[in-house]
Amino acid sequence: MKRTCLSGLSPLTATRRVAQKSPLLVLPVKTSASQGRRSTGSLSQRPDAKHVSFPGAVKSAFCNTMRFEEPSTYPALSTYRAVDQHGEAVDPDFKPDLSDEAVVKLYRDMLTVSIMDLIMFDAQRQGRLSFYMVSAGEEAVSVGTASALEKEDVIFCQYREQGVFRQRGFTLADFMNQLVANRKDPGKGRNMPVHYGSRELNIHTISSPLATQLPQASGAAYALKIQRMQDPSIPPRVVAAYFGEGAASEGDFHAALNIAATRACPVIFICRNNGYAISTPTLEQYRGDGIASRGLGYGIETIRVDGNDFWAVREATKKARELALQDGGKPVLIEAMTYRVSHHSTSDDSFAYRARVEVEDWKRRDNPIARLRKWMENKGMWDENKEKEARDAIRREVLKAFSDAEREKKPPIRGMFEDVYETLTPDLEAQMKELREHLDEFPDEYDLSDFEGGRGSLDK
Prior knowledge:
Layout lengths: L10 H11 L10 H4 L64 H26 L13 H9 L6 E3 L5 H7 L3 H9 L22 E2 L8 H18 L8 E6 L6 H12 L4 E7 L2 E2 L2 E2 H4 L6 H6 L3 E6 L3 H15 L7 E6 L18 H10 L2 H11 L5 H24 L18 H16 L19
Parallel strand pairs: 1-2, 1-3, 3-4, 4-8, 7-8
Antiparallel strand pairs: 5-6
Helix pairs in contact: 3-4, 3-5, 3-13, 3-14, 4-5, 4-11, 6-14, 7-8
């Protein structure tokens, strides 16, 4: 919206003037509560006051000793854990809110993601995929958080949230069709592998640029808030935005948190702090107390949880959703402490910047799948035979889905020119003609047998 100088007018008159220029502006409803509330601009410093009353710090006490605050003098924020690495509950108030069947289903979701990651990683090494990113070590963060959200909640993922998609209903066929970019891929083969999306599941399509989903999530949450203000009959919804600690070094992260805090947007920011942003250890990324301390700096309710603890992640997300919907909406930040067991992607060799023994130690000592399994075994709902049966069955299902997807034809070649404009523009038609002439000139240089319609599809 173009800024308009409205100095000298009353706030209500100024708002009406802007509304006349912008029919999309929603005028606030003036209530008795709002009439009694002073704006921040009306704050004044009273004589002999003991506290700062400036708009930027309204609760800061005056002191007469000059002292610079040192981060090292403050203890690190604690990390919430409900179940320890032995599968034993350590939170005395923790009570599981899921049936045995529901827990087993979510555990199988975590197993499915883990097994699929191993198979797809190998498939990329065989040249059957162009790219892949695994989520080994982070399965509890994605499945646990997703299990505490409602299906109507809107989600923005980064690129390591296979568990979120799986928990919400993404099938193995959905995964494979996108990975191999066949004609059943909703994205029509235009995105890189692992850039999933689902309108039906309320998950926005993943995009590669780091952290761009965060301000988008804040904006979407603000839209949901306004939508419900205009129509209270709409069920309350929140937005969940996933990102890694490396993305928190981007400017978009700070813009997103500030927007969400000042506009009181119902959004849950979920950070996977897995120790490394591609090849940069966290100690080289920042000097502060993780990502959680940044949420406090923006005035956002924040919690740090053990990301290897499925139950801690789920409990924190349940509470975060309640908080996000309080008082008309507000943001919440969850920092989940995990460890990235595998390489950043198939384009990365993590042993170039970390010791192999470090990775193996994390695999052996503590990982989210093993911890939830121990908890289930302690409850008598799981054993070694069920584990073997589940792993064998899931492996067969993944391999079959991958094989089926590979046999599907590719999207029509013409599709690369479509869906940008309602009708093809002259320059796109010229490009399509140029491609057709090129294929006709060199028919033996290209194998179009796997492409739906072949060269003829360019004439349709």
